[in-house]
């Protein structure tokens, strides 16, 4: 399976509007450092799935018929805001597989247009083409799912954002899943007290120690994290990496 | 005052996602026919105001400090969706003057970031730089204001969308306002029964007959309206015009 990091930014992205920090200035000058709303495109020979819909130009990037489904981690605006425009399309319904959030976001459920929302059950695997996905509950201020994604030939990739730590049941699932790669929320630089809603770098490393992925990419990154990396010149272990927008990996 | 129609489309815009009608095909081939979310930039020597925030690239079009305020007609997503990203900016608060809608849209009130929401009272004039604006109630499925905008030298412009017909008090205000130009909701081609939430062409003409603007531009236009215009080759009276994206007028 091929994974494209279509966005690796937290809410507000990089550059952050009006911010003059070194990371934001760099991102304005060199677009390869920009971080759009956190999302990923998953492709195999048989399917094309978009994980999260915060990109505000979804309707331009993905012409009608080019996606088999959109899969949502949760209904915070930075993960669904591209749907507000897309929903008014014409033609075939587009499946939007989502966590069982009774509220959704604004009037998306009420005026769903071409979007066919379908709520998923945690830990209950489902198939899309040649992929099997299992929703994994995460710890966040809204009902949130990560996804364990497996190809028919046993390649495995976990997508885990937005979260602060992991629920025990999700940790156990990953510990018994077999070899896998993953993308993980790392919204904050190391903090004295871990934040309420997202991993800081320390907590992200702790999760990695617990579930032992063969490789991991940090995503949902903020300008703070980029500033910290520029200050510290920190070097990650060989099996860890910072994701960046448009990075393509093959699992 | 200078007015730029930064967007002249209804919800879904033109081209509409996945639509193969003649207006949508034309808009894909020739970008001057595209219609972005309905909005307008109002400029004088002293102020720069954005009317509605449905453009999804507000944060790129208007760098921090370049707008004095955003003024909202209402909290439907196609009029506020650009705020979801913009709010996470750094630095000075940005005034967002809005109708007294208790709900706003999604979590905009709760997580307002740099946005300083300020609810306006209908018919109570307020000043921004050398402009005086008066909120005018409209008929729509959410609390909605049009705005009567006047310069210190007596140039007048009314911005009236989204609406189906006009409330009587708004009609009376405009009838006694003196000479003015206006932009008016014309979301639908002529319909047998006028639609519930927006003007069709017939109702738009009726409003124009009632309030007698010196000039009027139709906006909040749909692909249906553009198709109808292409089919009919209809010619408007000299004081009426179809707005188009990036059209600049001086009042
Ligand atoms: Mn997020
Ligand atoms: Mn979130
Ligand atoms: Mn509208
Ligand atoms: Mn509306
Ligand atoms: Zn910054
Ligand atoms: Zn069309």
TrEMBL record, chains A, B:
Name this polypeptide is given: Phosphonate metabolism protein PhnP
Sample GO molecular function, one term: phosphoribosyl 1,2-cyclic phosphate phosphodiesterase activity
PANTHER family attached to this UniProt entry: HYDROLASE C777.06C-RELATED, HYDROLASE C777.06C-RELATED-RELATED
EC number: 3.1.4.55
Primary gene name: phnP
InterPro entries named in the record: Metallo-B-lactamas, PhnP_MBL, Phosphonate_metab_PhnP, RibonucZ/Hydroxyglut_hydro
Enzyme class: hydrolase
Species whose genome carries this gene: Marinobacter confluentis
GO biological process: organic phosphonate catabolic process
